[in-house]
Amino acid sequence: MRPLGVELAAMLADRGVNTVFGIPGVHNVELYRGIENAGLRHILTRHEQGAGFMADGYARATGRPGVCFVISGPGLTNIMTPMGQAYSDSVPMLVISTVLDETAAKCGQLHQMRDQEGAARAVCDWSETARTADAAYALVDQALGEFQNDRQRPKAINLPIQILSEGAGAPPEKSSELPREPITNDVDPTHDIINSKRPLFIFGGGARDSAAEANLVLDRLGAASFTTYAGRGIVRSENPLHFGSYLARADSASVISSADLIVAVGTELAEVDFWRETFEADAPIIRVDLDLAVLSDARGARDLVQSDAREFLTKLSECLETHEPATEWTPEKVATTRARWKAEIDADRTGIVPICDALREALPKNTMIYSDMTQFAYAAKEVWDMPAPGLWHHPYGFGTLGYALPAAIGGAVGYDGPVLAIAGDYGFQYTMQELGTAAELGLNLPIMIWDNDALAEIRDCMVKAQIAPNAVTQVNPDWSYLAQAYGCGFAEPHSIDELCAAINDGFSAARPTLIRAVPGRLA
């Protein structure tokens, strides 16, 4: 018999895993014994937080689970922030960590925690400890199966150190993937939708895989639409009745209230989608979601439909095959409203909108973008229409800093196309050590640093609240020397055209490129 660590590596490879992110340590070295023979590619990160964000970015780019190997104790706690981010944004991540064999009757051990399993459970779908090889195999298959058939959220498997080195029987044969059982509903809202005169659809990230079906429904029905930030790209940007991702605009509430029926597909209608505490509408609301927990928070909905977005929209489009749109929405009204909202953002965040417009035109249409919590991204999420879903990734729900660089590295590892990272000058420093990983991999990854020399969003928030700005400025490194230290390229454009050129050049470079974008210089 081979050690369990060897068998687990072989099992993961057999189940379709080909890349693992992590850091070897004294407590998890047995996980590494078999990875080369199994054909697994291991990405060595500079911090477990980076490993988690890379796995997140990889999963969003490829649709495959992001798998991480971490050590007990601090390895697990370091990756908990990425796990929380993956949980809020429905990202399939499998974290396999070691755990001490005994903690109740033995104190003072290296990496000791009171309840490692419980700590992980606070930020993921489930966290379990496998005390036998068979249990480990069962948990791996359970996690991978749930990624296929349920809402995708991170899982944690804790493995006692001792069992990893012990001989274990081979894992079970890979079973054929079982299709998700169809969900039956007592509610069929098709009649109400077809007879609506001003239907309004709101598409969230849960509908990303149903863009074709969504657009067919909108065309056949003559419906207006919004997307959440995570749903951008689902609706064609040229659709004349599409209001875009402007849900956070204050008077989007009046547009929503003017509908006679609202159909929310694959969205939690969460505070971070609207930046209002409640979702209120005068019209009846139909909510469609795979997750019963989401539907249990009805948000005033009249009809709750548990369904995969694609299945629901496919059935609806079939019912609309001979339907003649009788919509009361007008393209002129939608265009006027969108133009007003875009002007509001341009006034609030001066200088960002023209840069977004220029980059959208200049970059390859299949560019995958990873952004951090920064003012540039806050504006871009509303004004930058995406040509397809799943091309812009952001820490939407949990809202952590330090996401963009490592997530973009994970994306670049898995995505066969150009990848761009966008981060603020402060947030970038949360995880800037992962430049070492990007350089080590030789990634042609441009990294745009929006350098306003401050925590500008917090500073502006303080000013609006009549609080004297405090603790919102920092000393930044000399970015050119930082790039040089890691063997990366560097650019400091002085115009929007130069910025577009620097990013496009970065896509073909044989190394990462740091691009310092100073707002006042990009006139």
Characterise the protein shown here.
- The chain has 523 residues and is an alpha/beta fold.
- Helices cover 38% and strands 16% of the residues.
- The strands form four sheets. It has a six-stranded parallel β-sheet, sandwiched between helices. The protein has a six-stranded parallel β-sheet with strand order 15-14-16-17-19-18, with helices on both faces. The protein has a five-stranded parallel β-sheet with strand order 10-9-11-12-13.
- Helix 18 (435-441) links the parallel strand 16 (419-424) and strand 17.
- Helix 1 runs parallel beside helix 6 (133-149), helix 3 (48-62) crosses helix 17 and helix 15 crosses helix 16.
- The N and C termini lie far apart (67 Å).
- The mean pLDDT is 94.
Can you summarize this structure?
This protein is an alpha/beta fold. It folds into 3 domains: 2-168, Thiamin diphosphate (ThDP)-binding fold, Pyr/PP domains (Rossmann fold), CATH 3.40.50; 190-335, 3-Layer(aba) Sandwich (Rossmann fold), CATH 3.40.50.1220; 349-521, Thiamin diphosphate (ThDP)-binding fold, Pyr/PP domains (Rossmann fold), CATH 3.40.50. It has helices at 4-14, 35-38, 48-62, 74-88, 116-121, 133-149, 161-165, 190-194, 211-221, 252-258, 271-274, 292-296, 309-319, 331-348, 352-362, 375-383, 404-414, 435-441, 456-464, 479-485, 496-508; strands at 2-3, 19-22, 41-44, 66-70, 93-99, 126-129, 155-160, 167-168, 199-203, 224-227, 261-265, 285-289, 303-306, 368-371, 392-393, 419-424, 446-450, 489-491, 513-517.
